[in-house]
Design goal:
The chain contains 6 helices and 13 strands. It is α+β, with helices and mostly antiparallel strands and about 260 residues long. Strands 4, 5, 6, 8 and 9 form a 5-stranded antiparallel β-sheet that branches. The longest helix is centred in the middle third of the chain and has 18 residues. The chain starts with 7 loop residues before the first strand and ends in a 5-residue tail after the last helix. The relative contact order is 0.15.
């Protein structure tokens, strides 16, 4: 703790989605938390900046990467919140080089096999900070699928059966993930786009957490204005925030799609 400094984010090793997160400002808050802990605790730097995620599938001598997704800005408590998320996203050039170096180091040091996922932040100073590494695909798989047309889980299944997943899947449209409250269903999407609904299930409630479910709007090149008009026309209360926020995220993905289809 002394080396890391305060404030910090403390996470309990629990299976519930986004449960057991504690923002610790000083030593007085840390004591009661440790005394009452039932689960192992992970302590990490409380980063302010933009959060990203990337998914990977590794085999002998190769790693396939899906496009980077932007999860939105971290607040002062590093809370995930009810953010509109988008893929692809292009991190700043310096952070992108750091990300590539981290992936190479992980490949050399651990020789990963199968699916894995990284959450990372880019600080306001432009530096990369790794938040999480998980030995599985993560919560952006729906966006990865909508963005590239290649379901990461299907690619993993083919790899298990001995088939290489092929080259890194390129993004061919923007995937805009929208948190929709309750049982609300957005109206039909504009022509040329696709609205994918992921309602979740009792066995995997991740897409339906905290009273929200996350649908994904797939927007190919040339349909950005139609998608923006659709967002502006959504009935009040369909999104937890202003439609302009979602439109700004759409513009972010559109810009990344033009820069590099792979999102790197």
């Amino acid at each position: 703790m002394a080396e890391l400094g305060l404030p910090v984010l403390v996470k309990e090793a629990r299976s519930e989605f986004h449960a057991g997160r504690h923002y610790v400002r000083d030593e007085r808050e840390l004591g009661p938390l440790c005394a009452g802990a039932v689960f192992p605790l992970l302590v990490q730097e409380a980063v302010t900046g933009e959060e990203f995620a990337a998914e990977f599938l590794s085999g002998p001598g190769s790693t396939v990467a899906w496009p980077v997704a932007s999860l939105g800005r971290l607040d002062e408590r590093c809370a995930p919140g009810r953010r509109v998320r988008v893929a692809p996203a292009a991190p700043p050039a310096g952070a992108r080089r750091e990300l590539e170096a981290v992936v190479r180091d992980l490949e050399r040091a651990f020789a990963p096999r199968g699916p894995w996922q990284m959450d990372f932040a880019v600080t306001d100073a432009g530096r990369l900070r790794v938040i999480e590494l998980n030995g599985r695909f993560g919560g952006v798989s729906n966006m990865s699928w909508a963005c590239t047309g290649l379901d990461p889980h299907a690619a993993h299944a083919r790899a298990v059966l001995g088939r290489h997943p092929g080259p890194a899947p390129a993004a061919h449209r923007v995937a805009l993930e929208l948190p929709v409250p309750g049982e609300a269903v957005p109206p039909p999407p504009p022509p040329g786009t696709e609205l994918l609904l992921f309602p979740g299930s009792p066995a995997n409630p991740g897409p339906r957490v905290g009273g929200f479910h996350r649908c994904v709007l797939g927007v190919p090149p040339g349909r950005e204005e139609a998608a923006r008009d659709w967002l502006a026309a959504l009935p009040p209360g369909t999104l937890p925030g202003p439609w302009q926020e979602a439109a700004a995220r759409l513009a972010r993905g559109t810009a990344a799609l033009r820069i590099t289809p792979g999102g790197w």
